[in-house]
Amino acid sequence: MHKDRPKSPFLNQVRDAIRTRHYSIRTEEAYLGWIRQFILFHGKRHPSELGETEVGEFLTYLAVGRNVAPSTQNQALNALVFVYRHVIGRPLGDILGAVRAKRPERLPVVLTRDEVRRLFQALDGPHWLPACLLYGSGLRLMECLRLRVKDLDFDHRSITVRSGKGGKDRVVVLPDPCIAPLQRHLESVRNLHEKDLRDGFGAVWLPHALARKYPRAATSWAWQYVFPASRRSVDPRSGVVRRHHLDESCVQKAVKLAVRKARILKPASCHTLRHSFATHLLERGMDIRTVQEQLGHKDVRTTQIYTHVLQRGGNAVLSPLGEVLGSAQEQGADERPAPAGRLTSPP
Q1: Cα dist. 168→163, 289, 296, 313 in Å?
Q2: For the chain: N or C, fewer Cβ within 10 A?
């Protein structure tokens, strides 16, 4: 049993319900955190004694008292919906009167092609290749880091993204400039995997019950991570020592550093490369439905946000200032006296 097992019997029950449904470790940690905060907010009362009113009070506190983002408030709500439905067995009804966090209307940050080029020139080491896939294939950061060797198809220039956002699979483009670097990278990864096998390790984490169904899959080359961590670590759920994928914070820090080195003033991040991928495809005339499929958006309206980025500033409005200033400059030139020593035209 792992040492980080919650002390509360109720939270242990919640954790078991989450793992039975194969939720990710991130979701497990987030849900347990929100449920713990909900219990503390109501004076350590058991959730079975509480209901929709108390849930609404907690959500209002998050929006007003802590000024959280809408996505954060939604995550807290999802955690409470889960616990009441799957643990307590009393699904929540309508939550009336709760103040919902407001979602600001912001356009995504997008880099120009020159800025992307400068960013890649400032990137080095093991982080250059993952960043290339974020921009070249439009991957989310965790989709990129969770890639397995078998997900790369060099013959068809494609990458299969498994269990992306919403639990969906999709196929995206594998950029030609990444093929040779990826093949060289996989050679070193294979050497690392073979060393792990010689040392008595080399069994990668497998989703759900695949490890029991296919006992040899965990040590097979096809299932290894494309971007493995430099060190082995202890699995937080099973306690098994294995090599996980590269930690996302490493790539995030490297990209932030490269942004500063490249003297890019925009607040760019790893996800900015995905935004830039979509925008640059649309600039080149790519069909919006194709871009939607590449990004894995469920609704095309999510993809349409990038069409607003393409529009000229101010919704394609052409300011009259240029025309006025241009006319004033022309008029001023006509009214200026002729330079000394030059003849003027007769009246």
Answers
A1: 5, 17, 8, 35
A2: C
Residues of the chain with CATH 1.10.443.10: 105-313
pLDDT, one tens digit per residue, over 256-285 is 999 999 999 999 999 999 999 999 999 988
Residues identified as active-site: 140, 165, 271, 274, 297, 306
Q: What is the CATH number of domain 9-87?
A: 1.10.150.130
pLDDT in tens, 189-219: 999 999 999 999 999 998 877 778 888 899 9
Phi, psi of 151 (to 5 degrees): -80, -10
Give the whole-number percent of the chain exceeding pLDDT 70: 89
Among 140, 113, 145, 142, CA closest to 126: 145
For 105-313, which CATH class? Answer: mainly alpha
